[in-house]
Write a structure and sequence with these properties.
single chain, extended, 7 helices, mainly alpha, 0% strand
Length: 126
C-alpha cells in the first residue's frame, strides 16, 4: 500500500520526516507517548469509558476556549491552514496518492498481500 488521505504531507508536517518515513515506508507502529513527544498528538487521556472520555475532552475544549474571541480563532485557523496549503497543497497530495493507489491496485500486489494476511502468512504492520 502507499500513503493515502493526505498522509504523505500531513504525517511529515506533524511528526517530522524521519518518523513519517518509519510509519509510511516501514509500517512501524508508534506508541502514544512517542506520538505526543513528536507533536503528532497534543495530549494523552487515560483509558476510560467512552462517556467519561467525551466529557473530559469537552471540558478541556471548553476550558481552553474560555475568554477567547471566536472570530479571531476562526481567522487564525484559516491563516494557519492557508500557510500550510501554500507549503503543501493537500489537493495535489491527495491526487498524487490516488494515482499511486490506482497503480498499486492495478499491479495486483495489494490483492496478493491481502490474501497472505488472510492466510496469516504475514502480519499487518499498521
Amino acid at each position: 500500500m502507499v500513503p493515502e488521505g493526505g498522509s504523505s504531507i500531513s504525517f511529515v508536517n506533524k511528526m517530522g520526516l524521519a518518523k513519517a518515513n518509519e510509519v509510511l515506508l516501514w509500517g512501524k507502529k508508534k506508541g502514544s507517548q512517542e506520538l505526543l513527544d513528536c507533536g503528532f498528538v497534543n495530549q494523552i487521556f487515560p483509558a476510560q469509558p467512552v462517556d467519561s472520555f467525551h466529557a473530559a475532552v469537552r471540558k478541556l475544549v471548553l476550558d481552553e476556549l474560555q475568554g477567547l474571541d471566536p472570530a479571531a480563532l476562526l481567522e487564525s485557523k484559516k491563516l494557519i491552514h492557508a500557510g500550510l496549503k501554500e507549503k503543501n497543497d493537500p489537493d495535489a497530495a491527495n491526487t498524487r496518492e490516488c494515482f499511486a493507489q490506482a497503480a498499486r491496485f492495478a499491479s495486483g500486489v495489494p490483492y496478493e498481500q491481502t490474501a497472505k494476511l488472510t492466510r496469516k502468512e504475514i502480519k499487518f504492520k499498521l
